[in-house]
Structures are given as structure tokens and as C-alpha cells.
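Pipeline run #58 for the internal structure catalog. This entry was flagged by the ingest filter as a single-chain record with no existing model, so it goes straight to prediction. Upstream metadata was stripped on purpose; only the residue string is passed forward. Reviewer on rotation: M.T. Logging verbosity set to normal.
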Amino acid sequence: MKPLRVLITGAAGHVGSSLVYRVAAGDLFGLQQPVILHLYDIDKMLPELQGEMMELGDCAFPLLKDVVVTTEIDEAFGDVDVAFLVGAFPRKKGMERRDLLEANGQIFPAQGKALNDYSNPDVRVVVVGNPANTNCLIAAKNAPDLNPSQFTALTRLDHNRGVGMLALKLDAYVSDITKFTIWGNHSGTQFPDISHALLKGKPINDMVDFDWYKDEFIPAVQQRGSEILRVRGMSSTVSAAICTIKHFKSWYYGTNDNDWVSKAVYSTGNSYGIADDLYYSFPVTCDSEFEYTVVDGLEINEFCEKMMKISEQELIAERDVIRHLL
């Protein structure tokens, strides 16, 4: 079987390195598909990348055909079939979100162009580095020969956080919960929506108090990343890597019958009045081999519409900040 080339940017970082070993072990494509890893990071991280390559060799992963370690963008992106864009400029003390957007504007135009010029024309891209939705838009707009549907941004981590919290509240298994949705941006404006969510086929709306949902659950999901950072002094790592794998696998293998997942995908002609030309998180079903469809025609109540629009407006404002990079 021909090996698939998988790029991980920021591969020496906490999330990137967690992802590296899971892909090498076969978590992405199963236990028959060989892979060639492309590990890319900035120059000062080269020793860490080289050490990572040595450790991969020591693991003797049977499906790992080769490892490309590089700080050169053309080599990193050359002929890759899958790209996980994990590396991004981190938010530092005193930075406003506008500053973060501008800083990442130095990274993602070049990566979008590299995807366009060097990668497999059928490449599929998952943007993990924050602010993920708008970084995804920047990359996609700088890859004019690729279809915007080849790019997605990660909101599966938020989705899984919400499902986990609901399972805890309802004393249930996470596998019992279906049709939960994250709408909008991977930020504090995201909207965790339970209005269509089910527990073993029964509406969760009927099982929880609305005040708990509005005043406790929604803020808890929205601020979970910040809370983890506060408690442990660093951002989510393993959970981010695992949910990146889950995001990709649902895209590649398809979603379960009678359920959907949350993905930030290109907004165009949707039935919810969300502006076009954004990467916005919707409920999505996936067929095998990378075909996805935004779930259409869900009934949206006044509260949900208001929350969805707040996140949309934030994404529009972010797009306005980086419009010169598109």
C-alpha cells in the first residue's frame, strides 16, 4: 500500500508532538495504512525535531515508512496528502486578539501558498493553531487552486468538552449523547447548543434546567481552555491532539448514522443566515472520503439565533482585521 504523507506543523510543540506519535502509531488511518511524516517547525526548534525523529525510530512503529524533518517550507509541504496546521503564534500577556491575528498573519499566508504550490492537489487540511477559524480562512484564501472545502478548522475539542460535561451532569455515557452542536468560532463566543441534543433518543432540553444551561454549562464550555490554562499553567495538549484525530477520522471515514459532529467549515449558502466567506462551526455529517454536508434546516429558536449571531459577528470582525492577507 502506498504510504500517505502527513504534515504536522509546530511538530516540536506540546500538541504537535502528541499528534506525531498518534499518527505514527496508526491512530489516523488504522493499522494497515503506512505513513510518511513531515515534521515542520521554526529554526530554533530543529534540535527538538531531530530528537523527536530519533524517538520515533526507537518506537519502531510498523506503519512509519519515513520521517522528513525540516524547517524549509517547500520541503515540509511537498506532496503531502494531509496537513495538520498546528503551529501558530501564541497569545502572550498583554496581547489583544487583534494583535494575535496580525501575528499569525505572518504565518498562514505562506502556509496557504505552500499548500497551493507544493502539496498534493487533493490535500486535506485541518487548522488547529489559534485563532483557528480565521487562520483557516487566511490559509484557504492563499491557496487559490484548492477548493475551500479542502480546509477545515478544529472545533471538535469544544464539541467533546460539551458532550463530556453533559454526560457528567446526566450520569450517562458520552456514547449515549447525540446531536450536540458547537456553532461559530473557537473562542469565548462559541455557542454550545443542546436544543437538538438527545440522550438515548430523548431530548436533553427536557432533562436540564434552562438557567443551569445558560448560566453554567455554556460559560463552562466556552471558557474550558482558559480554565485548563489557569489550573495547569499550559494549554490543552493531549485532548487537543486526540480531538484533532477524531475530527479527521470523522471526515475521512464518515459520521455515525443519526448523529453529526461539529466542524468549522467554509460558510456558503447555508440555511441559517450565517455570512458567507467565513470558517464557521456547524453541525456536519460526513460521507467517507472527505465529503461533508452541513446539516440543513434545523429549527433555531430566538435564544439560539442570538448566540449564533454573536459568534458570527466576531468572525466577521476578525476577517476585517486580516482582510489585507486574503
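catalog note: The mean pLDDT is 95.
catalog note: The first helix runs from residue 14 to 24.
status: ready for reviewer M.T.
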